[in-house]
Design goal:
Belongs to the YciI family. Helix content is about 25%, strand content about 35%. The mean pLDDT is about 90. The chain is an alpha+beta fold. It has helices at about 20-35, 85-95, 95-100, and strands at about 1-10, 40-45, 50-55, 60-65, 75-80, 105-110. The two termini are about 15 Å apart.
């Protein structure tokens, strides 16, 4: 089954790390992306570059930035293939942001 791992963290959290810690974290992300269970992974641009789109009354409405005002922002995602939720959670725990105060949300992917 496929799961989406959505990575949330405070903007700039990696800036607080030492150069050595930051390089080690990036190496972990690259190693994670090479895991055969990782279908796809990407870091997102900053929240300041986001555009939110809604349709109301037949009109397309756009706003800058994320719609919700939160401390943590969606910074990246991974699409994984896992046997079950337990395996997906084990993989999510390997994501460095989870250790540095962030959150990794795990959701099953439902195909249309």
């Amino acid at each position: 089954m496929q799961y989406a791992l959505m990575i949330y963290g405070e903007p700039g959290y990696a800036d607080a790390l030492s150069d050595e810690e930051r390089e080690a974290a990036y190496a972990e992300y690259f190693a994670f992306a090479e895991d055969e269970r990782c279908v796809s992974a990407a870091q997102l641009g900053s929240a300041e570059t986001a555009t939110c789109v809604r349709v109301a009354g037949g009109r397309t409405l756009m706003t800058d930035g994320p719609f919700a005002d939160t401390k943590e922002v969606l910074g990246g995602f991974c699409l994984i293939e896992a046997a079950d939720l337990d395996e997906a959670i084990e993989l999510a725990a390997r994501i460095p942001a989870a250790r540095f105060g962030g959150t990794v949300e795990v959701r099953p992917v439902m195909r249309f």
